[in-house]
Amino acid sequence: MTETVGAAANTASGDESGDAAVGEGGTARRGLRVERVFTTEGVHPYDEVTWEHRDVVMTNWRDGSVNFEQRGVEFPDFWSVNAVNIVTSKYFRGAVGTAQRESSLRQLIDRVVNSYVRAGTLHGYFATDADAEVFQHELTWMLLHQYFSFNSPVWFNVGTSSPQQVSACFILSVDDTMESILNWYKEEGLIFKGGSGAGLNLSRIRSSKELLSSGGTASGPVSFMRGADASAGTIKSGGATRRAAKMVVLDVDHPDVEEFIETKAKEEEKIRILRDGGFDMDLGGRDITSVQYQNANNSVRVSDEFMRAVERRSEFGLRSRTTGEPVDTVDAKSLFQKMAKAAWECADPGLQYDDTINDWHTNPETGRITASNPCSEYMSLDNSSCNLASLNLLKFLRDDSSFDSAKFVKAVELVITAMDISICFADFPTEPIGDTTRRFRQLGIGYANLGALLMATARGYDSDSGRSLAAAITSLMTGTAYRRSAELAAAVGAYDGYARNEEGHKRVMRKHAAANDSVRVVNPDERAVLTAASEQWHEGLRIGEQHGWRNAQASVLAPTGTIGFMMDCDTTGIEPDFSLVKFKKLVGGGSMQIVNQTIPRALRNLGYVEESVEAIVEYIAEHGHVVDAPGLRPEHYEVFDCAMGERSIAPMGHVRMMAAVQPFLSGAISKTVNMPEAATIEDVEEIYFEGWKLGLKALAIYRDNCKVGQPLSVHKSGSDEPEKVVEYRPVRKRLPKKRPSQTISFTVGGAEGYLHAGEYPDDGLGEVFVKLGKQGSTLSGVMDAFSMSISVGLQYGIPLEFYVSKFQNLRFEPAGMTDDPDVRMATSVLDYLFRRLALDYLPYEKRAQLGIFTAAERTAQVAEDYSTEQSAVDIDGLRGSVDATPSKEISSAESAGDDQEVGSSTELLELRLGKAADAPLCMTCGTKMRPAGSCYACEGCGATSGCS
């Protein structure tokens, strides 16, 4: 796509003649030549697509209230409803309802891309104006066609009157002084206010076992974490409903490390006790603010020395922060077990492997890497930042399912160039961060949709072939990024800190290239990608030896939450597919369940004929998994393994995938290794230990149901005696002795009976009793027992709509005509009873989802259908959305076996699994979120719990 024009002898402004531009520092250099790859000369990218206008109305799934509304927005016709909704609500600037409000994707892309082109021209990145125009068109085309996306701060800020902040990831520093600690609080607050997150290492702060200069005892870092946690909980990130994202790191040799390890586990125990006592301890609950340390991810920075001591079961020294002398010794194995136990209980702390991180550090002469950003993918110098961008891997898959390495290389060149340009005009929250970032120019190119790519090419996520292709693609990405960085150094200069760190930087480049040579491929497709990667590393080293590099870092693997939705990605970051069925919104309104579109492609790659493909897809639509699918061979099951579901990927499978790509990343990987509820503390130990052995830089785990309100059983440290098992159960809300009620007489198929419904005084059904059959008969006794079980369930909080969804349409005698005008026919007595209860106690919205209406409501619907002319545009829009998905992939509520309303893929999967998934509700729209790296992302509105 681009080539470097060599250094010029004279200084001049860049123009069409290709005269040298003045680079940073006043050095006369020539810019880049840019060639067309995706675009056609003489045709603007906007003229190649079909545009349409849509109305964006986003409602809270829980109560139907409107969260956001903007009508008549303009997008390409191939953009999904979800992508349009999220981009419109999140990234369009200007007050809604005013002329200044953006209303078209063209305006958004132009605002950002034009800013990059102007800055690139000003700072000498392009040889001529024609090259700048080609760059503009190519960047526009890739964004328009969802080939990549910048991170969210770019879309928020670039080209607006706001500060031009482009970075999502920040690392701060704090020293052992009160002034520094208070400054830490201030800097974090400013970053949270701007909508980003930050991480830092507290290990410079002296421990609670050391003395102050005045002779008093120090507070220790854990105590100062309380103030920072309260600040983070108070400042809503970016003025939105999302709370602040932060990472707190402590070195394993800090004397307060045990207190740090147990901090969040103890608070989780407090949450359980308070919730059991009737306090509102749910996410966002009014009483949750009384719990500390909940706004940060905690990680222990472990050294090779410590891990070897764990291996040998020997003692390990904890060192004074002021003198460096040992102040205490601990059994390394016991300390490691405490980390695993705390993570088993509450998912914190994670581990960061200090020596591995610093062995791949390009700037060792400037300082060590001590911390990371909140999601743990960006690791660099203190007081620095990183702007991110992610490529959509599925866009580079050819029709024959081979990976298009050539186009991928060109795309990486273009994106890494744009990312570097942004540092030239970017604003930063603090001057130290701005200074470090401008001197070292850290970038974080990455990708999304790896899981979908592997499935589409018929590779299992946890397979040698899957890991081989992932490693080759990651190596190609970072190799190309650093080769382009070397070319940029030739054009506009190496980063300021390069001269001091030249040997260290070159050493790391050679380590990356050597790791590329050690990849073992399984089939020719992977060999082709790896060969292309080898060429990029070879050329990059050659150019870098002569000119240096423009960027100290080039790549990370971020969670890609919101921008993943913007690109219509099936999977985020390095994650596998979440599940085989998805929850999809339709253009004409409403939603539907579909089978992942990569599944038919994978089946065809595996050699299945079209009839078999249709049968297997239909089976998946009905069951949500591939086990026992007709005609599908068991040896192919692994291709369709997902993060959750009937066949979920084993925890070590996630670790092995991370280890396969880690040698080809400047930073690390945002990912949490999910473990089943039955996993043991020893299993956590194994994961953390293998992460170190396999060369990961960071690792965190999450055990299903380890959070609030779940049964918990632990063993005392150093004892075989189990502690008593404490079970936390829901609290029964009993009815008062005097309560309102109603009694209904009914007839179903000639059988007469009575329904008594008792209510709480403050509204809501609390008990039911059914009289059917003669006193003392078997039928009467069964109905009495049934009534009591339903009543107790209602009092323990089981929603009435759950019972209705389970018992309506239940078929047995007596059945037939009823004497109820609202329920004329019933398939059984229970079918009638729960339809009647739904009509009396459920709101219209929930009854509509269940298909239960009064006679008057049905009459009104019929009258409206036959008296009001339907909009042909709306009907065609809805039909087009439905027809776009093969009919075999649509599963109705009946085939799913449940009529319960769902609002996201996570909730859809919960229906399949029959149990709740550990994901929070979105605090913006109420939809259940799904994992995205080490964070969570909302499919409804694009909100994230961390990096976006």
UniProtKB/TrEMBL annotation:
Ribonucleotide reductase class II vitamin B12-dependent N-terminal domain residues: 56-146
Example GO BP: DNA biosynthetic process
Signal peptide: none
Domain of life where this protein originates: Bacteria
Stretches assigned to the TSCPD domain: 736-840
InterPro entries with a match to the protein in the record: RdRp_reductase_class-2, RNR_2_N, RNR_lg_C, RNR_NrdJ/NrdZ, TSCPD_dom
Catalytic activity: a 2'-deoxyribonucleoside 5'-diphosphate + [thioredoxin]-disulfide + H2O = a ribonucleoside 5'-diphosphate + [thioredoxin]-dithiol
Keywords: Cobalamin, Cobalt, Disulfide bond, DNA synthesis, Nucleotide-binding, Oxidoreductase
Annotated spans, Disordered: 1-27, 877-904
Record flagged with keyword Nucleotide-binding: yes
Cofactor(s) recorded in Swiss-Prot or TrEMBL: adenosylcob(III)alamin
Enzyme's top EC category: oxidoreductase
A Pfam family assignment: Ribonuc_red_lgC
Entry EC number(s): 1.17.4.1
Domain Ribonucleotide reductase large subunit C-terminal: residue ranges: 167-702
Primary role: Catalyzes the reduction of ribonucleotides to deoxyribonucleotides. May function to provide a pool of deoxyribonucleotide precursors for DNA repair during oxygen limitation and/or for immediate growth after restoration of oxygen.
Record-stated family: Belongs to the ribonucleoside diphosphate reductase class-2 family.
PANTHER family: RIBONUCLEOSIDE-DIPHOSPHATE REDUCTASE, VITAMIN B12-DEPENDENT RIBONUCLEOTIDE REDUCTASE
This protein's name: Vitamin B12-dependent ribonucleotide reductase
